[in-house]
């Protein structure tokens, strides 16, 4: 008989609440978001609206990059990721349905430019899977230890932090969105 202590629960060692909207477009076995939910590392929500305090919504189309300036908001409201297909996001040019920019739910931030280490998108810039995106956000906000713990047990997880070590250090040291943009330009030649 299992004790109530063995039931998965949200990890108490995470200082930032991790929230997840699962759209269900990915293959269930490859879906890192669903796995985070099963492991109790994230909490499922339906949409960003109504979250109080508001969460930071990781949106690849947001004009403002995530920076250390967002740390207090993340500590209070959490980080919200959308688990959906990259192919379908590219087709739509925005996040799906209830998370489209017009819904105004949460504070939208894009992740700084990073390289994926997951098997589906290895080596591609900005095509992170859900666990990589949440881990990257934690790193940028100054929670490197929690970011590493989140990736434990995921294929490509440790490699993600290694491949992006220098980039993540630059981004974590940036105090504002403008400094993150400058770091992206320095690291990728982006403009």
Task: Supply database-style keywords.
191 residues, alpha/beta, 5-stranded parallel sheet, 8 helices, disordered N terminus
Give the arrangement of secondary structure elements.
Elements: E1 18-22, H1 32-38, E2 43-44, E3 56-58, H2 71-77, E4 79-83, H3 86-92, E5 107-109, H4 130-140, H5 144-151, H6 157-163, H7 165-173, H8 177-188
Parallel strand pairs: 1-2, 1-4, 3-4, 3-5
Helix pairs in contact: 4-5
Account of the protein in words:
The protein is α/β, with parallel strands linked by helices and 191 residues long. The chain has one domain (4-188). The chain has 8 helices and 5 strands; from the N terminus they run βαββαβαβααααα. It has helices at residues 32-38, 71-77, 86-92, 130-140, 144-151, 157-163, 165-173, 177-188, and strands at 18-22, 43-44, 56-58, 79-83, 107-109. A 5-stranded parallel β-sheet has the order 2-1-4-3-5. α4 runs antiparallel to α5. The longest helix has 12 residues, at 177-188. Mean pLDDT is 83; it is low at 1-12 and 100-104.
Segments where pLDDT lies below 50 for 5+ residues?
1-12, 100-104
Q: What would you report as the Rg, rounded to the nearest angstrom?
A: 16 Å
Main sheet: strand order: 2-1-4-3-5
Strand content: 5-15%
Indicate the mean pLDDT: 83
What is the number of helical segments per DSSP (H or I, 4+ residues)? 8
Domain count: 1
Write down how many β-strands occur, each being a DSSP E stretch of 2 or more residues. 5
How can the largest sheet be summarized? 5 strands, parallel
Any idea what the shape is? globular
Q: What would you call the structural class?
A: alpha/beta
